Records
---
Amino acid sequence: MDTYPIRENRKPRTKKERAKNQIVFADKGRTKQDQTDSCDINKIMDRYTKTGLIPHGNPFTPEQGYAPDIDFHEAQNIIAHGKEIFAELDSKMRKRFDNDPGKYLDYIQDPDNQDELVKMGLATEKTPAEKIEPAKKEEKSPSPGKPEQKTEDPPK
């Protein structure tokens, strides 16, 4: 094992020698100095000891508007199901939609594309809707104590 001699006669460097190796930044820099108080850990802990709360900013502003009546888990299941349907298509069909399930779903939901979907075998032909007779309203029994009697139409 090699040993290196210790320099016992080494002198401390002078200010002039130290200045040669220093980096000096002349401009102010791009750091915002107006937020130093909100970022200083000592001031944050002082506020915590006084109030018991750690201050934090909310980067998201609350938005109001339409929200579907499903939770996050259900939404993720719907997305996964759409991706599964798209993955089951053959490669030529997926390539037609640039391998994008979103483009595929937009295409099949457009009623103008119904005829082409039938030609591709992705949908069945629509049949004209049958006329549905409106349901007859049942009359309620006049006395509240008696149970209601339901009348059924005889089979045709």
Note: The chain has seven helices and no strands.
---
Amino acid sequence: MPGHGRSDLIEQPGAVAHRLDGRLDLTALTLRTDRRGALEWLRERGFIAPRKRGRPATRRIVAIYPYRDAHGTLLYEVVRLEPKDFRVRMPDGKGSWAWRRPETRVPYRLPELLAAELDEPVFIVEGEKDVDALAQLGLVATTNDGGAGKWPAAFADYLAGRRVVAIPDNDIAGERHARQVVASLRGVAATAAVLPLDGLPPKGDVSDWIAAGGTAEQLRHLAERALAEAAVAGPDAPAEGDTRPTIIINDPDRDHHQRSRP
């Protein structure tokens, strides 16, 4: 597997041109342009960092989220950088990395998803950090790379016959994303439901809910209530862009001002 080491530091523009050496000239020759045009072409496609004003900074890798196929083979990684940014890299077959998105995409933690019992609820959230937080509680969870609005319809096949609960981040993009996920599972999953977590801060997520004291037992209870409501409602759940309100499941064991807040 490619190592990390010095490749964990990604340089910003400054010494970009001379670091590329002959590759920049080759790109310019292929595109029939000059070195400046080749450099801009590489920036536009994410092969090198975009131009920024001010003194160039070095971004540091703070988290790595591996995406593996059904057999556990590493396909690509989503890399979180500081200052905050996300990049995608894949093994280049030569012991290093190619900083690009592969053609084949898979759900995060796919081997764990496939190994789970079919009747185990699967939580779909908006980011890898949230998936890992749920996994630490012993729950089955997954997500897509790229964030909200980037759920591939083809991912539904990995959830065939399963009971799925989409937990949105507390913003409009998160709500739309959760509805998109549920809509893609119609006729595929056994049951699918959207479960907003009440009491979250603006743009808050399930990791915030857990940090506030939420437990696996509480989340399982809320999920079962949401799935039961979805089963009664039938397959006509609101699709992406639907203006009908999403049902918030009330937990009778909690204070009525904290319906799904831990």
Note: The domain at 110-233 is CATH 3.40.1360.10 (Dna Topoisomerase Vi A Subunit; Chain: A, domain 2).
---
Amino acid sequence: MSIRLLAGRFADEWATDLGTFLEHIEGELEVAEQTTPTSIEDPERQRTIYACIDYSVKRLTPEQHRVLDATSLFQAPFLPQFVADALGDEEHTPLHLQNLLRLSLLEISAHTRTFQEGELVLLELHPMLRWYVQHRLPAPSAALLERYGEVYAQLARTAYDEYDHDSRLRYLVRQSLPDFEAALGCLPPAGRSSLAYHLAQPYQRLGLNRRALALYEQALEIDQDLGNVRNIALTQSAMADALRQQGKPQEAMALYEQALRTEQDLGDVREVAVTQHAMADVMARQGMPEEAMVLYEQALRTEQDLGDVHSVAATQSSMAHVLSQQGKLQEAMAQYKQALHIYQDLGDARGVGLTQSAMADVL
């Protein structure tokens, strides 16, 4: 790394011959080595790298310094766009990042990958440079920290909606977990609640259910403090979904019931239908088919009134499954056929395939 740093700086100082360059830097490197923080690992090597970093960083322009300061916030490999977003400067940041790469103060991460959707180029700081930044550069401003937090809040919202549709996004989310966690400490309460809520779902997808529930609990606590009733209901439903997937139906039902009461008080008929469907799923699995059918029918009426045909098909399929388990095969087939027509009209190949398979099981 020391050689790359000095080579990058020498290339930048084009008017200086190599002999003059080496003579000039020798004294500065010796001074910098004396200021190297104590380290228990390979102190001789670290003093050399530290001195080379110090020499290069001191010669950055104020604009380059500002970009380097921002990159030091990132805990894991990051997109160049993230730095521009944190600084609020999409015009100049890309050029400054290129200069930092040329000077070997930044690196193309070994985690860069190519996917079907295209290449995902990630940057990162060398661990020694991060060590240098911690000891020599000023602490980041509160405004920069909040903008850094907002970068990952936006990524979490995108992942919440698009996680299943883009392999680059899934990979980036996995790489970014340390920054998601760091970002939670950089946002005001409302932003922290939003990040925790949206981040919990990717954690669930990764099988990290305990952390997902902890994030939901964090979001719920903040929203209760803020008095954000609508968000409280959304989070309770999401927590119930997570508990249901973990095989904890009683805990899930308690949260669904709380969410349902709030949604009814708010007059949010769409969310009422979603929660009724989820509660019916739990009841059906708990051997309560009659109670489940009552809730399915209530949800179905609302979905039909709203013109939400995709939800109508999903509810009809769920009702058909319960009816088939009760031995009511003709009624089940009638529901499956209605759902199938909707999926075919929507061009939903997955819905068509699943429904046809379920119909075959009935036959």
Note: The beta strands are 107-108, 113-115, 118-120, 123-124.
---
Amino acid sequence: MTAMTADSRKNTSGGRPRFYRIATVIGILLCVALIPLLAVNITLIAKSFIHPEEVPDFMGYKPFIVLSGSMEPAVMTGDLVITQEVDPASLQAGDVIAYRYGDSSIITHRIREVTQKDGLRAFITKGDANNVDDNVMPTEDLVEGRLRWTVPGLGNAAMFLQTPGGLLLAAGSPVLLFILIDTLRRRRADKTEQKKSSLLEEELARVKQQLASAEPPAGEGEGGENIS
């Protein structure tokens, strides 16, 4: 009986295909990225309903979507800016701050000068792209935070994630991805199993053929002496 060749064993051996490993890594990375974003987004939405008079935050950080070009080129329209709550006494000229203006507006501009107003620290601010100072002088109690990071273009995506469709997409994408990966894995496993079966059948047929060729022809064998 002939043993299976090394190539046959290699072809019939198990193991995850390379594409499955790559797809799994991509799925994990997407989950790592989407799940925290979803948690932050839900927290911000919940806080906005619980305290509608306050700007919602996540552990002291507050994201704002830039809707105008007053801070270009440092901050572009559609960017997402993330500010951090700080001690107003630490603010100085050159810092970019987000402050409340009116009932629902947030302005993100650069401090040009620190002064006093009604016994509080106040700030003369101006957008980098503007020719004149802002027509209001925010006091320290109106400051929401100091700019920490700017994420180009993410503001538009963040607005979409706050919609029901965006939340559904963020929550469902990892699940759909894993379903797709599992479907592809199963199809690949079926093909591998079919290939293994085919190779085994070929090997069995080869062994049968070798056994058949090794048998003596019919009619041959030890003959006896004729007695007359």
Note: The radius of gyration is 36 Å.
